[in-house]
User: Fold this.
Amino acid sequence: MKDIDRLKSFIAAIKSSKYQKGALVDLRSVSEKEIVLIGDLHARKDNLLKILNYNANLKKLKRNEIFVIILGDAVHSEKNLLEMDSSVAIMEFIMELKIQNKDNFYYLLGNHDYLSDMFIKGGIRQGLEYRKRLRDLFGEEYIALYEEFIYNSLLMLIANSLVAVHGGPVKSASSLSYIQDIKVSDESNISVLEAEWGRWKDVDIFGKESFFYYDEVDVKNFLDKIGMSEAFFIAGHSPNRDGNWHWQLMPRHHIIFAGHDNAGYAVFKDKDIKFIQI
Assistant:
């Protein structure tokens, strides 16, 4: 499949996904299936393949036996901040997964996923570097279509006793319908910022406090407002720099990360969650 045709088919699969409702993917009606949750990959296609091949997850996905949810930030290597070919490769693979499994594979947006100048890491505007690489490889039409993918993307997952986002609780949200109607493509929207940039209060980000830090009270208030008080709350984005991939911050709040050599994923079913190292 040509690159631009793949992107068009990817967008069509997003738009026609059975369980996508605006900025939400709602799996509350299918509680009998496992939900595989994958944290930030940061261009580690090898880790994504390990997760999919572990416990026959890819075969189960193709047989429509499980859901697979990526919690954003599949792009931008943490080892080489300027190198973008690995980001292109992992997103092409993710596109294929969505095209082939449109109703049981979903991708939530993270703060790295935009082609903008908003994100700076190590002095490098990685969104602009990624945009430039895509333009060089595929042309301007591809960039316009990629922006359409962003426009039609997801911000949050809900299931019975489960809520997942990339960053943190959407403190500004008043209800699930509010989140469903969020324009995910608007990076300056406070709710988008909270969901994608929210960071646990105790995480050290090079000695700087996150503008969108959150704590135990914020998580509780958010889950109460959306009617999910007893849910597990799973996010990425806030890894500690201790070599691990999974952190339990509250009895039912966990962070997962799949972008380092030490990686794993979460599996949710029957209102219970397990964490599996690969």
The mean pLDDT is 95. The first helix runs from residue 3 to 15. The chain has one domain: 22-277. Residues 22-277 form a domain with the Purple Acid Phosphatase; chain A, domain 2 fold (CATH 3.60.21.10).
